[in-house]
Amino acid sequence: MKIHASVLRALVLFGSLGLCASAAAEPRRDDRHDDQRGRRDDHRDRRDQQAAPAPSIPVAEAPAAPGAVAPAAPDPQLTQRLREAEQQRERDRRNGQKDSRAWNDGRSQRAATHRQQLSSTWGSLVNNPDAKAELATHADRMARLHRILDIANEKGDTALAARAQADIDAEIARDSQVMQSIRAKAGAQ
């Protein structure tokens, strides 16, 4: 019993010395890290303020100015035509990918054909800076969605393939609507 009591006293003694030593020690201060931490916190505060939803205030619509052009409703026939053209490009892509060398060699021809289709669909609107930005965004999104679709088909993941196809359809509809609104705005100017 004495051995246990002496061991217990030693543990208590060492423990109290360790606590006292750590309590008496001053924390090391590194001003550089404190400044960086403050800057990070400032950025977080700004992001939180930007992301905070604006209070919902009912807004009454102003009457249209005389001679102003109201935004046109999206043309469903145009959207359907764009979907069909995309489906044809997708079929060509599936067939062409069987021979990767021929597929890569035909890249410039496919690009020229696609540019010609865009020009025939949108006319001189493709030279508008807003339309160019929208077409670039659309091309990037479509490339990513097609890559997802290819991977899903390779792995046999039908759920992902269906989701990618639904997203492709939604992107085509979105692009069509945005391009039509750009065309309406350009026509109003």
Please describe the topology of this protein.
Layout: H1 2-24, H2 31-51, H3 76-96, H4 100-105, H5 107-122, H6 129-155, H7 158-188
List keywords for this structure.
189 residues, mainly alpha, 7 helices, 77% helix, 0% strand
Fraction in beta strands? under 5%
Distance between the termini: 98 Å
Instruction: Encode the helix/strand succession as letters.
Output: HHHHHHH
Give the beta-strand count.
0
Proportion of helical residues: over 70%
How large is the count of helical segments?
A: 7
Low-confidence stretches at least 5 residues in length (pLDDT < 50)?
A: 54-70
Outline, from the CA principal axes?
A: elongated
- Class based on secondary structure composition and strand pairing: mainly alpha
Largest sheet: none
**Mean pLDDT across residues:** 76
Radius of gyration: 32 Å
Structure summary:
This protein is mostly helical and 189 residues long. The chain contains seven helices and no strands.
Structure description:
The protein has 189 residues and is mostly helical. Helix content is 77%, strand content 0%. It has seven helices and no strands. It has helices spanning 2-24, 31-51, 76-96, 100-105, 107-122, 129-155, 158-188. The longest helix is centred in the last third of the chain and has 31 residues, at 158-188. The protein is elongated, with a radius of gyration of 32 Å.
